[in-house]
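S1.2 Input.
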Amino acid sequence: MLHRETVVGVGLMLVAGFFLFYGSQLSFGTGARMGPGFMPVIAAAILGVLGAVILIQNLIARQGDKLPHVNWWALAMVVLGIAAFAALLKPLGLVLASTVLIIIADLASDGRNWLRTIASGLFLGFVSALIFVKGIGLQMPLWPWFMAGF
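S1.3 Output.
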């Protein structure tokens, strides 16, 4: 059976490898004149070393927690909610796409209160609009095209 630390160490090394690969395709630069690939490569190298240390410590000690049971339904609903948000952001706008995200992610929980879920989604959408669109000026639609005047 796999130990949690083994999975974490391998996972960190895989993420580091991904960013090292794509970061190395950018100009690295020098310490005095850093290029766009400098920070991703350095951060990925640190992450990879950290993952290797965790993995080696676990392999030497052979101790640690066993992997817990994974609730695949809940994980799938959260991932589906994020994917739906990404797909619906442009056509529905930030407020409604956030609401859809919360509704789908709520399917992962046991006790559902649809009124609370929809209210939470709308509240999250309005707060996100205030922070990202009004606060820092991010350009994204708040509403669907037919409600653009609101």
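S1.4 Remarks. The helical segments are 4-23, 38-61, 72-92, 94-106, 114-135.
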